[in-house]
Each structure stands twice: as structure tokens, then as C-alpha cells.
Amino acid sequence: MMAPEDVTIRPATTTDAEAIARVDIASWRGAYSEILSSSYLASLDVTERASRWKAAVTAADTTVLVAEDASGTVGFTSVGPTRDEDAEPGDLEIYAIYLHPRAWGSGVARDLMRTVLDGLDPGVVVTLWILKGNNRAQHFYRRHGFQPDGTERIDDIGGRPLTQLRFRKR
User: Fold this and answer.
1) How many angstroms separate the CA atoms of 102 and 9, rounded?
2) For a Cys-Cys bond, which of 38, 50, 64, 68 suits 21, CB 3.0-4.6 Å?
3) pLDDT tens digits for 72-86?
4) pTM of the prediction?
5) pLDDT digit string (tens) for 86-103?
């Protein structure tokens, strides 16, 4: 089991995009195997995801952090202006926070979340979206002060309509 003290959290660069994509896909395959089809999860492509992460890392208003240990990248998070229509100016959204499954339960996600939250101005509203049925994530976010605010949306993921729940923290 990796120890959080053996993990470094730092701002991502474009050279991290492929490693972030690999963690992203491994995490999706581990976390969503009961929610998404195996064919969809198998179709996730590192090159395609890496190009998205390269764009995110270079976006002026987005912060992407990576967590790495001696073996390389084990997790990441991405934060920027909220995409919600009902948001106030200055509200932020955690777009993603994922760990490689081998890092689950190690405290790395907690450290990534604390790093994000510690970097925010007091009183900033932060939202995030969680797939309904992802109880592990809901528990994690509740421990960090996020609560469901009653807003839901349906997203088509892998050809299936799936409900996402919005969680909010002030």
C-alpha cells in the first residue's frame, strides 16, 4: 500500500497528458464497471483522452494537479469555472478527481482534495457531479463537506442515459 507521504502533488504540464489519460481510463474501468458497459469501457482510448488532457492543462482558467509516486502518476484533479447554468460568477467546479485503482484507499485522493480546497478563496462555492450509484465517491465528497443540492442531470455515457447528482460546498 502506498503512503501519502510518498506522493508529490504538483501542477500538471502538457507532458503529463498521457499519464493522466492512463490513470483516467484505469479509474473509469475500475469505478464504473457496474454502471457502464464493458464494451464502452474497453473502447476508452489513451490517445484521445491525452489530447483532451493536454487541452485542459493549457486552458488559462483550469487548474490540473497530478499526484505521483516513484512509479509515476497515480492520480489527478481538474478544477475551473463551473459549467452550470444556474451558477454565480466566481463559482468553481471540480471537473475530475481520479486515482489509479491501486491508489484507492491510500489517502492520495484526500490529499488532492485538500490541496484544491486549501487553494481557494474563503466563501467560494464549489460544485461537482457524481454518477448516481457511485456510492464510494458520494461518501468521499461528503467527508470533505460537499452535499447534494437536489440538482440532477441526465448524461449519455457509453450510449446509456445516466443520472448525475450535483454536490455543492461553500
Assistant:
1) 17
2) 50
3) 999 999 999 999 999
4) 0.92
5) 999 999 999 999 999 999
CATH code for position 50:
3.40.630.30
Indicate the SS3 state at residue 7: coil
Rounded Cα–Cα distance for residues 123 and 37 (Å)? 39
One DSSP character per residue, 30-49 reads: HHSTTTS-HHHHHH--HHHH
Whole-Å CA distances, 33 to 11, 30, 95: 29, 6, 20
Q: Give which of 10, 17, 170, 144 is closest to 92, Cα–Cα.
A: 170
* Owning domain of residue 116: 4-169
- Strand pairing class (8-11; 92-99): unpaired
**In the 3-class helix/strand/coil scheme, how is 149-168 assigned residue by residue?**
EEEEEEEEECCEEEEEEEEE
Domain count, the chain: 1
CA 45 centroid distance within chain? 18
**HSE on the CB side for 15, CA within 13 Å?**
2
Strand partners, 52: none
| 149: Cα within 13 Å, side-chain hemisphere | 17
Q: At what angle do helices 46-58 and 17-31 cross, to 10 degrees?
A: 120
